[in-house]
Q: What sequence folds into this?
């Protein structure tokens, strides 16, 4: 007799390790960002927002790139493994939330430095457009159809949507913008930042990246279980229908 | 600290959202894991 077991565990040693790294890094960001790092010469204490704002923006970019890569893997692989599609979906969900957090923190930072919560500036406008695009991507994922149909149409959208990221990143160079240029990835290799500020920023990037990895790993497992339940329910409904029709005969 | 309200709002909103997301993900995972057979959970 085939006995089914139901283990309620979703975490694994890998996710626990990544989670612990995320918590340790986040604790550093809060302590370092609020109490250890010095004020900026121009911005004063407002620069402390950078330790949260930059890593959330980085994670949003990373999430949408992961969505595109996983989507390409789904389209190009022979077996069309649904695991790729679920990673794409999970990553986009996390990316949308981090992109919204980036806009919120940027808006509050803008109120201090520019005197306004929002300006129709190239960086802000393209970022908002990117957010709306990925909300649309998630809406398309929610449409009906088979798992393969969902994977195919969302993969095509993901591969088109990711092309917006260079536009957002280079918008400050392409157009006149209120938003400052890149401080760390400036290209000339000369980072004009205090050592403790740079360290806290890099720890923040690592911590938020670990948080993203943890969320995507768990979320894609949730999506896998939702898909499995849907298939089980579908199988049960088909069996019931078959039994019903055989009884009528 | 200057602009304390804005800085607290940024840190507070960011970490509250992350914690809420983590709690929701764990809760959803546990609820589903008790209903889905282990054969459909390759990580178990």
A:
């Amino acid at each position: 007799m085939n006995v089914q077991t139901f283990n309620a565990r979703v975490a694994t040693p890998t996710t626990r390790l990544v989670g612990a790294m995320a918590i340790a890094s986040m604790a550093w960001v809060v302590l370092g960002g609020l109490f250890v790092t010095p004020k900026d010469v121009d911005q004063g204490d407002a620069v402390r927002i950078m330790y949260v704002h930059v890593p959330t923006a980085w994670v949003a970019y990373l999430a949408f790139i992961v969505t595109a890569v996983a989507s390409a893997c789904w389209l190009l692989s022979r077996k069309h493994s649904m695991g790729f599609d679920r990673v794409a979906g999970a990553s986009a969900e996390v990316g949308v939330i981090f992109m919204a957090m980036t806009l919120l923190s940027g808006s509050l930072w803008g109120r201090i430095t520019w005197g306004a919560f929002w300006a129709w500036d190239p960086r802000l406008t393209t970022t908002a457009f990117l957010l709306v695009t990925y909300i649309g991507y998630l809406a398309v994922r929610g449409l009906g159809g088979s798992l393969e149909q969902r994977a195919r149409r969302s993969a095509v959208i993901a591969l088109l949507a990711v092309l917006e990221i260079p536009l957002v990143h280079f918008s400050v160079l392409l157009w006149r913008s209120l938003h400052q240029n890149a401080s760390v990835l400036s290209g000339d290799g000369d980072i004009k930042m205090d050592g403790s500020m740079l360290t806290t920023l890099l720890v923040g990037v690592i911590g938020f990246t670990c948080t993203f990895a943890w969320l995507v790993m768990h979320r894609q497992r949730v999506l896998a279980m939702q898909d499995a339940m849907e298939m089980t329910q579908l199988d049960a409904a088909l069996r019931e229908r078959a039994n019903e029709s055989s009884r009528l005969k | 600290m200057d602009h304390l309200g804005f800085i607290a709002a940024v840190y507070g909103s960011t970490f509250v959202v992350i914690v809420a997301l983590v709690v929701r993900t764990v809760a959803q995972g546990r609820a589903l894991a008790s209903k889905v057979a282990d054969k459909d959970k390759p990580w178990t």
Q: What stands out?
A: Chain A has one domain: 15-36+46-179+195-248. The interface with chain B takes residues 4-10, 12, 26, 30, 33-34, 44-46, 48-49, 52-53, 56, 94, 97, 101, 104-105, 108-109, 111-112, 211, 214-215, 218-219, 221-222, 224-226, 228-229, 232 of chain A (CB under 8 Å). Residues 15-36+46-179+195-248 of chain A form one domain. The mean pLDDT of chain A is 89.
